[in-house]
Write a structure and sequence with these properties.
The N and C termini lie far apart (41 Å). The chain has 121 residues and is α+β, with helices and mostly antiparallel strands. 21% of the residues are buried. The chain contains 3 helices and 6 strands; from the N terminus they run ααββαββββ. The protein is globular, with a radius of gyration of 14 Å.
């Protein structure tokens, strides 16, 4: 795939919602960057998988509900309400925006902007 498409973005977030790091890291190459909230960016599928595994450990489930997608030649912005089922049984929905930069058929740079603090309160 030469350019990012809406189907690519939708399928990416479906895989994110499975809470399987292996499904998500297949979208990344060795030089890819991943930044979640205000945490430091990490590079490469192995490091991305570790970040995801740690995050998935603090929730029972998550579901992205699309609000909008804006596509550029090699980028996309995805706005969503993300519903989390917390380990304590609580449920919370948090607005989020993801910026995805695409290169040679893979996610080259991913940035999620979301205030995750309510998940831990």
């Amino acid at each position: 795939m030469e350019k990012i498409t809406e189907d690519f973005v939708i399928n990416y977030f479906k895989d994110v919602d499975t809470m399987s790091p292996d499904k998500v890291t297949q979208y990344y190459g060795t030089e890819s960057s991943f930044k979640f909230g205000n945490s430091e960016a990490v590079r490469g599928p192995k490091a991305i998988g570790k970040v995801l595994q740690k995050f998935y450990g603090v929730i029972k489930s998550m579901a992205h509900h699309k609000k909008g997608i804006w596509l550029g030649k090699d980028s996309a912005v995805f706005e969503a309400d993300v519903t989390f089922l917390k380990n304590d049984g609580g449920k919370i929905t948090i607005p989020a925006v993801s910026i995805i930069r695409f290169k040679k058929g893979l996610v080259n740079d991913f940035r999620m902007v979301m205030d995750a603090a309510p998940l831990f309160s």
